[in-house]
Amino acid sequence: MEKKIAFITGATSGIGKACARYLAEEGFAIIGCGRRKERLEALQKELPKGTPYHFLVFDVRDKDAVYAAIDSLPAEWQSINVLINNAGNAHGLDPIQDGSVEDWDAMMDINVKGLLYVSKKIIPGMVERKAGQIINIGSTAGKEVYPKGNVYCGSKHAVDAITKGMRLDLNPYGIKVMAINPGLVDTEFSLVRFKGDDERAAGVYKGFEPLKAEDVADLVRYAVTRPPHVVLADVIILPTAQASTTLLHKEE
Ligand code: NDP
Ligand code: 8X3
């Protein structure tokens, strides 16, 4: 492949999908991943004409499926330059005493273990080539804990620690590792968190201007176009109306 290759998990929606579009505009070949095959098929048409595009359908919770999908990449798609570990979500918003174990499992399995499974398959090639960039999509929930955020915040704090660990361990190989930690971004995130309750999900983003997925993708684009000696290690990006996970200025 003549172009640099970006491997993006969670490319069917929100931040991941916007990253696919922006990095394709930047000249990257795109590997888009997710569970919803029809959306991955449709994504091709949203990328600039002529963008080399390959998609992989897998659930990041399923280690064997992750490994098989990445092993199935044709030879010309195997030298991945940029890995964007983006797939993830919150499931539920309950005080710890009322939380659902299924929700806890989903968040730890997807946001933490899924990120590790994908990384486990892609990092060795970067180490061998002594080159590459890993961008983990964390969250302000990985920097602060908010009421009822318990396990989601735990999963994103784990992403924060794993990102720092990756940066230490991959330092001898010239691999760039960064975390982007967004505040509130208007995507399908809240729809998933509230299990399809549109009204409750829309309410999260009412009364202020939230980030758009494109605002985060713009930062990803900036990060991947820095010169070789520069890495944006850890960035928090917020809507202007948000000062912390618990302080949000809303006009009601
Ligand atoms: P979306 O719900 O719009 O997108 C989530 C993406 O993750 C989808 O493409 C989905 O694909 C994928 N995904 C979810 N579960 C799985 C799974 N089990 N296996 C494979 N892929 C999966 O949300 P966002 O774009 O907002 O979220 C992207 C990332 O940004 C997440 O890590 C989230 O925690 C983080 N984030 C979001 C914020 C926000 O306010 N929106 C703020 C801070 C961080 P599919 O369903 O097709 O599998
Ligand atoms: C998503 C932002 O504040 O809903 O990570 O946890 S928040």
Q: How large is the share of residues in beta strands?
A: 5-15%
In N-to-C order, the SSE pattern is: EHEHEHEHEHEHHHE
Helix count, per DSSP?
8
> Gap between N and C termini, in Å?
51 Å
CATH superfamily: NAD(P)-binding Rossmann-like Domain
Overall mean pLDDT score?
98
The total count of strands amounts to: 7
Please name the CATH topology: Rossmann fold
Bound molecules: NADPH dihydro-nicotinamide-adenine-dinucleotide phosphate, 2-hydroxyethylsulfonic acid
Ranges where pLDDT stays below 50 over 5 or more residues in a row are none
- Structural category is alpha/beta
CATH first level: which class?
Alpha Beta
Pfam families: adh_short
Protein name: SDR family NAD(P)-dependent oxidoreductase
Organism: Cyclobacterium jeungdonense
Family: Belongs to the short-chain dehydrogenases/reductases (SDR) family.
List strands and helices in order, with pairings:
Elements (H helix, E strand, L loop, with lengths): L4 E4 L5 H12 L3 E6 L2 H10 L6 E5 L5 H9 L10 E4 L15 H29 L3 E5 L12 H20 L6 E7 L6 H5 L4 H7 L8 H12 L9 E4 L15
Parallel strand pairs: 1-2, 1-4, 2-3, 4-5, 5-6, 6-7
Helix pairs in contact: 1-8, 3-4, 4-5
Outline the structure in words.
By secondary structure, the protein is α/β, with parallel strands linked by helices. It has one domain (5-237): 3-Layer(aba) Sandwich (Rossmann fold). It contains eight helices and seven strands. Strands 3-2-1-4-5-6-7 form a seven-stranded parallel sheet, sandwiched between helices. Strand 4 (82-85), helix 4 (101-129) and strand 5 (133-137) form a beta-alpha-beta unit. The chain is globular, with a radius of gyration of 17 Å. Bound molecules: NADPH dihydro-nicotinamide-adenine-dinucleotide phosphate and 2-hydroxyethylsulfonic acid. The site of 2-hydroxyethylsulfonic acid has 6 residues, from loops.
